[in-house]
Amino acid sequence: MAPPIETPNKVSNYQQTPHPPLNERILSSMTRRSVAAHPWHDLEIGPEAPKIFNCVVEIGKGSKVKYELDKKTGLIKVDRILYSSVVYPHNYGFIPRTICEDSDPMDVLVIMQEPVLPGCFLRAKAIGLMPMIDQGEKDDKIIAVCADDPEYRHYNDIKDLPPHRLAEIRRFFEDYKKNENKEVAVNDFLPASSAYEAIKHSMTLYADYIVESLRR
User: Fold this and answer.
1) Active-site residue among 14, 67, 83, 88?
2) Which residues lie within the region annotated Disordered (predicted)?
């Protein structure tokens, strides 16, 4: 009688290659049924703020869709489609770990060569401030360039931009809510130093906001 043929024990690839364990933050967030990270609170502003800072992009250059941060979940949601026949002239987003008087993070318009997908973040360099009144309320915007775009990273102040570029930006924000019967007023652009002060102020307000939240 022929001896039985021995067959090696087969081990599945799953058993051979153990998966890396999930870190405690992800496990905790899954237990809470929430997202793993919140871009407003979990992303650092960056060590070079207020001059160079992280910016989370909500709306890509050339988009007619008004995306915005959902402050409760940290996801990027569709707020509306613009009513006017205009598109965002540059990438638009917010600075993490800042807050303004309207209870939203600081807004930023980032000038660079290419559109960026909503939800991504980049390093931006402040070059100016656009004072704006939206329906009677202060709604200033930081004007910045992408700090890692070779075409724009050498810009240091709003005066470095061509006058026509500033005229385009002003016209967009003056017009983009007209068909909604909402009034927006854009005042004269201010230099980089004013942008730094506005960012520092929003960082201070955010620190106060966190302390107040912890006391509740």
Assistant:
1) 88
2) 1-21
Alpha-carbon gap, residue 106 to 98, rounded angstroms: 6
88 catalytic, yes or no? yes
CA 139 to chain centroid:
16
Contacts of 211 (CB under 8 A, 6+ apart): none
Domain ranges within the chain, ordered by starting residue: 36-215
Tell me, letter by letter, the H, E, C secondary structure of 97-156.
CCCCCCCCCCEEEEECCCCCCCCCEEEEEEEEEECEEECCEECCEEEEEECCCCCCCCCC
Rounded to whole angstroms, what are the CA distances from 155 to 24, 91, 160?
42, 17, 6
- What's the whole-model pTM score? 0.83
Residues recorded for the chain: 216
Under DSSP, the state recorded for 36 is: S
Mean pLDDT by groups of 10 residues along the chain of 216 residues = 53 52 60 71 97 98 97 94 95 97 95 97 98 92 98 97 96 93 94 98 95 81
Q: How far is CA 18 from CA 15, 21, 25, in A?
A: 6, 9, 20
